[in-house]
Amino acid sequence: MARISTEVVPVARMGSVILSEVHRSPQNFRPDRGLVEVTLTMNWSGGARLDTMPADCGNPECMADHGDTGNVSPEDITLRIASTAEGDTAVREARAFVRALRRAQVHQTR
């Protein structure tokens, strides 16, 4: 059994799009070759993750209840596309997708 959830997010709601690139030989950088991996992170307003844990004061002998602490992170998605797993074409297509998404974001703000 598997459960799959899908959310359709309008481009206008996208908060940020981050593209990280890994180049094979950065000392010989050329934008048209040597790209071996991209990581794409997109976030938007809407859902969020809440991670909580017991708070402490740092004193290992303290027995007081310091309540809880945690982080609220906006819902996002991170995709890693590597040439060794998906192939060079998939890496180039992912980079092109990010560029198209950025153009759509700019168009939405005009």
Provide a descriptive summary of the structure in words:
- The chain has 110 residues and is α+β, with helices and mostly antiparallel strands.
- It has a domain at 11-27 and 34-48 and 75-109.
- 24% of the residues lie in helices and 41% in strands.
- The chain has two helices and three strands.
- A three-stranded antiparallel β-sheet has the order 1-2-3.
- The longest helix is centred in the C-terminal third of the chain and has 22 residues, at 88-109.
Secondary-structure map with pairings?
Layout: E1 14-23, E2 35-54, E3 68-82, H1 83-86, H2 88-109
Antiparallel strand pairs: 1-2, 2-3
**What percentage of the residues does DSSP assign to strands (E)?**
35-45%
> Could you give the count of β-strands?
3
Portion in helices: 10-25%
How many helices? The count is 2
Output the keywords.
2 helices; single chain; three-stranded antiparallel β-sheet; alpha+beta; 41% strand; 3 strands; 110 residues
Quick structural summary:
By secondary structure, the protein is of the alpha+beta class. The protein is built from two helices and three strands, in the order βββαα.
